[in-house]
Every structure is written in C-alpha cells, then in structure tokens.
TrEMBL record:
PANTHER family reported in the protein's UniProt record: SERINE PROTEASE FAMILY S1C HTRA-RELATED, SERINE PROTEASE HTRA2, MITOCHONDRIAL
Matches recorded under PROSITE patterns: PDZ
Protein name as catalogued: PDZ domain-containing protein
Keywords, in A-Z order: Membrane, Transmembrane, Transmembrane helix
InterPro entries: PDZ, PDZ_sf, Peptidase_S1_PA
Transmembrane feature ranges: 12-34
Domain PDZ intervals: 313-365
Family per record: Belongs to the peptidase S1C family.
Chain coiled-coil ranges: none
Pfam families on file: PDZ_2, Trypsin_2
Native species: Candidatus Falkowbacteria bacterium CG10_big_fil_rev_8_21_14_0_10_39_11
Domain of life: Bacteria
Length: 380
C-alpha cells in the first residue's frame, strides 16, 4: 500500500512538472506566432503591449482629428474677422428721426452685398435692388449711407451701387477656379451672421425645361451651387473661401451664386465710367457639356441651334457678318477650348469690347477657322 502511494506521488509530481514545462513552451510559441505571423508590423510583444499600442494609435487619431478641426475652425474664425467690415446690408430709404418707426429693423432688410472700393462702390444683385427708381440705403460698418448711383449688368443679375463714403475696408477677390466641389465657404450677413456652407457644384447649369438648354452668347448661365438654402437677408451676400477671398455673390435663397470672375473685367470700367460694357457675338447655342444625351460628333463645344423662334445666328450681329451658321460647333476661341471650366460666353467676355477673335469651328466633317469682329452689346 505504501509503495502504491509513493508511486502515485511521484507520478503526480512528474505530471505537474510536465504541465508547467508545456505551459511555458506554449506561451513562448504563442508569443512567437503572434509576433511573427499575426502582426509583425505592429511589433506587439505582449497583450499588454498590444493594448498600449492601440491606445496610443487611437490617441494619435483623435489628436489628428482634433488638430484638423481646430485648424479648420481657426481659419473659419479668421475669415469671419476679415469679411465682417466689407459686408453691406440694404434697406429702403426712410427719413432719419427720433421715433421708433424711423429705425431700420432686421425684418426690413432687403438683402446684402459687399464693398468693392474704398470710396463706396458695392456689389449686390437685382434680387436686392429690384427697382433702380427707388431710394435705397446701405449699412456698412455701423453707418448708414444713401445710394447715389445704380449700375446694372445686362449679362448677369449683378448690380453695382455707389454710396458717398471713403476709407472703407474692401473685399479681396478670388476665382471660381480656386474652389472645388464639397469645399467649405462662408456666406456673410450682418443681420443673421456668418453661415458656413459647402459647394455642391462649381459648375451648375439650371435646366428646368428643354428650352433652358439653349443659351445666348450674351447671357451667363453657369453658376456655383451651394448645398444649402438661405433666408432672404443673405441674398446678395459675398460667398467667401477660407482664404478670405470673395469667389461669388449669392443670387437667391436656393443657393445659386454668381462667380466673381464674370464681373472681373467690367468692374474696373464700371467704377470709372459708371457703365458696364459687354461684347456682342450674337448666337444661340447648346452647351454640349450640359446636353449629355444630345447626338453630336463632339463631346464639348457650342452647337449653334435654332429653337422656338430664336435663331441660331442673329441677323446683323458679328456672328452673322462672319458667316456662322446653324449647326456649326464652336470649339475654341483664339485657341482656348470651350469645356467644363469655360463656356463660349465666358471666353467671349474676356476680351475688350470690339476685339477681333478667331473661332475654331466644326462644320459637318470639316474644321474651319473664322475671324469675328466683336461689337459692343447695347443694353435694353
């Protein structure tokens, strides 16, 4: 009996020793497997190290996101500081007085604008200054100024107004080529504050009916579309990128904005002479970038098109005198291609009034180059 007990105890000890050895070996092998096969790039040496590294990774990620958001907010706040002084608010004129009814109230705001020159030229839209025969006032920097002159643009809904002021802060101007889809911008209003918005489309062409696909060479139709809707006081407001540059003017509550590029060439002459002069070409056309299901031999260009009583080439205009015809596709203006970034209308209006340009066209299967002498557009 004693011999059996002794044998049992020896067997138990051996089993325990073997178990300890096997456990140790399993642990070593398991760690080697993790290190060599499971995640060698992360250099996890133990479960504790794995936990530590994951915590560090998450910490770095959260820190990066926080830094990104902090930087974005800093740019946003800096931009607000820069554009507040150049933002204008429009009202109908009323005589100054001491009564409560003589004050300009928030619910009387017609819309917004921005300061273009230090001596009082301001940009807004026809949706704000709807009737040039009425009297308007503008609030800039806490002061009220009466509008002394109104200059409308025949090709866009933009309006330039003049107030008797000096030493105003002025807007820095940018280009639609500096912005892209989904980019954050700021729409500025003195009454409702600064609204952050995203660009839905840099090149937006509204087409609610088939007739909207036919464009005049004397009307801009490509706009910037913001992904938000706005209250009325924002109409006419500057659309500003996070570099503090005005890239567009808000046209309506639906978020359509006029690129400032369309005014760049004419603003200088407008503030000098009080007139906005535009070029006349004299065609109606389909923008083949927009008409994606239209059968044509090319994917881009301006197809001269007769539609609903509108002639493709208007009698007596520079296009008519140069011999352009319905069915011609204008591909280039002085070598600059008509494409998604620039329409025929945009290219023509880049020239001084009365310039001569060379159009590259497709007529049937033939490519032609035709010289056209532009003329001055007479406003109605």
């Amino acid at each position: 009996m004693k011999k059996e007990d002794k044998t049992f105890r020896v067997s138990l000890v051996v089993a325990l020793v073997v178990a300890v050895i096997m456990g140790f070996v399993s642990g070593v092998v398991g760690e080697l497997w993790v290190n060599d096969f499971l995640a060698p790039d992360l250099e996890f040496k133990s479960y504790h190290d794995l936990t530590k590294r994951i915590d560090e990774l998450l910490g770095e990620k959260n820190s990066s996101i926080k830094d990104l958001l902090t930087g974005h907010d800093a740019a946003f706040n800096q931009t607000i500081e820069e554009i507040e002084p150049i933002t204008a608010t429009f009202y109908l004129y009323q005589k100054a007085g001491v009564g409560l009814n003589d004050q300009y109230l928030a619910n009387e705001v017609l819309g917004s604008g921005f300061v273009l020159t230090s001596d009082g030229w301001i940009v807004t839209t026809t949706n704000v200054v709807t009737n040039p025969k009425r009297d308007y006032v503008v609030e800039v920097g806490g002061d009220i100024y009466q509008v002394t002159d109104i200059v409308a643009d025949s090709m866009t809904p933009a309006v330039l107004v003049k107030i008797a002021a000096n030493n105003l802060s002025v807007a820095n101007l940018g280009s639609k080529n500096s912005v892209h889809n989904s980019q954050s911008v700021i729409v500025a209003s003195k009454i409702s504050g600064m609204e952050r918005a995203n660009i839905n489309k840099v090149v937006y062409m509204r087409a609610e009916s088939s007739s909207d696909l036919v464009h005049s060479s004397e009307t801009y139709y490509r706009f910037i579309k913001l992904g938000d809707s706005f209250s009325a006081e924002y109409v006419g407001a500057p659309v500003v990128n996070l570099d503090g540059k005005v890239v567009a003017v808000l046209l309506n509550r639906d978020g359509e904005a006029l690129p400032i590029d369309y005014l760049a060439r004419v603003m200088k002459t407008a503030v000098q002479s009080g007139n906005i002069d535009r070029n006349l070409l004299g065609v109606n056309y389909i923008d083949l970038i927009q008409a994606v299901n239209f059968e044509a031999n090319v994917d881009a260009g301006a197809l001269l098109f007769d539609s609903n009583g509108r002639a493709a080439v208007i009698h007596g205009t520079p296009a008519y005198l140069a011999g352009l015809r319905a069915g011609d596709v204008i591909m280039k203006v002085d070598g600059d291609e008509i494409n998604e970034r620039q329409s025929l209308t945009e290219l023509i209006q880049e020239y001084n009034v009365g310039s001569k340009v060379q159009l590259t066209i497709i007529r049937g299967e033939e490519e032609l180059k035709i010289d056209v002498q532009l003329d001055k557009l007479i406003s109605n």
